[in-house]
Amino acid sequence: MDTESIQMSGETMLKLLNTLNVMLEENDERLELLIIGGAHMCLVQMSRHSSHDIDTYTKDKELVFKYRDLIRAQVNNKIDKTWINAVGDMFVTQEILNDAYLLYNFSNLKIYTPTDRAMLALKVASGRKSNSWDLDDAAFLIKKLGLSNPADIKLIVDCYKPGTWNKFGYHEDFCNTAVNMAYS
């Protein structure tokens, strides 16, 4: 089965996160996650219907990986191998964590999410112009925040950009394209 193209709705994501919470509860374990990327756009912004994964930042990656595989087996591998991951380590900064807020508070699982400004900074930092989802997501956030000048977007990115974002950060072409999309 080719799982690369399997998409999960927001409803499916919530069911999987609830299953994760139940497993954590059964094992008396606790986990905190910051959701970013497409999952954020589905669950928080409700600007898209699906994503193929739940990108997260967590201090407990091993716990995520343990339950990711157990839950995938439980649903007969009908979700992507990396349906939940910890790719946020590459992008999430202390500034983003400081601004994050609690989205879901399950018994043993807390789900946090970044602010709109921080999520825009993350989308711009990834700067994947070839990825239409990223451009659509950035355009949505740009319009929601009422931004029309790429220089204003750069100021937001700079607020959240650490020195370690050497290959990531502000992408002017990406921002120009996203601004044009937001208001076309």
Q: What's the SSE blueprint?
A:
Elements (H helix, E strand, L loop, with lengths): L7 E2 H17 L4 E6 H9 L4 E2 L2 E4 L3 H14 L9 E2 L8 H6 L1 E5 L3 E5 L2 H11 L5 H14 L4 H11 L11 H11 L2
Parallel strand pairs: 2-7, 4-5
Antiparallel strand pairs: 1-3, 2-4, 6-7
Helix pairs in contact: 5-6, 5-7, 6-8
Question: Describe it for me?
Answer:
By secondary structure, the protein is of the alpha/beta class. It has two domains: 8-114; 117-182, no CATH class. Helices cover 51% and strands 14% of the residues. It has eight helices and seven strands. The chain has helices spanning 10-26, 37-45, 61-74, 94-99, 116-126, 132-145, 150-160, 172-182; strands at residues 8-9, 31-36, 50-51, 54-57, 84-85, 101-105, 109-113. It has a five-stranded mixed sheet with strand order 5-4-2-7-6. Strands 1-3 form a two-stranded antiparallel sheet. Strand 6 (101-105) and strand 7 form a beta hairpin. The longest helix is centred in the N-terminal third of the chain and has 17 residues, at 10-26. The radius of gyration is 16 Å and the shape is globular. The chain starts with 7 loop residues before the first strand and ends with a helix. 40% of the residues are buried.
The radius of gyration over CA amounts to 16 Å
How large a portion of the residues is in β-strands, by DSSP E? 5-15%
Weakly predicted, low-confidence segments:
none
Counting DSSP H or I runs of 4 or more residues, the number of helices is 8
Instruction: Please give the alpha-carbon distance between the first and last residues.
Output: 39 Å
Shape: globular
- What would you call the structural class? alpha/beta
Going across the biggest sheet, name each strand in turn: 5-4-2-7-6
Helicity, as a percent range: 40-55%
Mean pLDDT: 89
Order of helices and strands: EHEHEEHEHEEHHHH
Number of strands: 7
